[in-house]
Amino acid sequence: MYSTHVPSDRHVEYLKSVEPVDQVVVVDSDESALREATDSEIIIGHRYLRQSLPGCEKLKWVQSTAGGVDRLPLSELKDLNVCLTNMSFPSRGIARHAHTMAWAITRRIPESFQQQKHGLWDNQFQWLPEPRDAVVFGVGGIGSEIAKLLKRDGIRVRGVRRSHSKSKVPEFDQIYSVSDRTEAITGANWVFLALPNSEDTRELIDSQLMELMADKGVLINVGRGETLVTKDLVHLLNSGKLGGAGLDVIYPKPESEDDEIWRIPGLLITPHVASYSYERYDLIERFVEDQLDLYLMGEPLLDVIF
What we know:
about 300 residues; alpha/beta; Rossmann fold; 2 domains; three-stranded parallel β-sheet; 11 helices; about 15% strand
């Protein structure tokens, strides 16, 4: 068993108790992963996955403990005819995080917090326009959950999908293909990024595109940092074109406290925690247990990638 966190004793005991599971092994190093992978039929998690695959002759199923799979060895798994599943249940929490960041920036909550730390009572903020139009790049699980929240706020929501299909997605007022992204983003007050990192999405969101947003617009990224040209965002924040931005992912990551990214006006940063919650690890373990039950009964698995 591979995991990015230490599984609970309860969880391990449950997995061991399920018939006809023969053996459950928790690995915590490259060495133990390489040693145990040769006899594994199921791998839970992906921390040591890439380096272990060459010896996985019996592997049939990999259950990732993440939502995004773009950083996994997808071609190698396909070559081995391995079933890959991910976890989509955190999508609602990630969407709530993105939605909260957008409203916090618009309502100037970070500025109020800074004033509170210094004992200042001053409400003369540079207020931002109330959002009327929003665009979500990525119309999968996370993007659709973001759209639901925005619709409840009475905001018109356009979606941009990676494919060239314009088929309807219920949560969105209108769907655009990625080739029509300039039309989609024009005049948007809020823009949300919920994209994976791929050749097609890398640095997709640049200054040329963000310039088309409404003045004092807000941009939020809860997808992958590589999809956004960070230096272009910084320039538009410094110039005042954008009213604010929220990043749960940054590329490149700041390497020290001296990095300029920490001091950009209007920028709210969270350290890749949009999917985290108090119940996170318990939910992961319960989901894995349900998936294992389905697998052993020969029933279709949830959240199948291929």
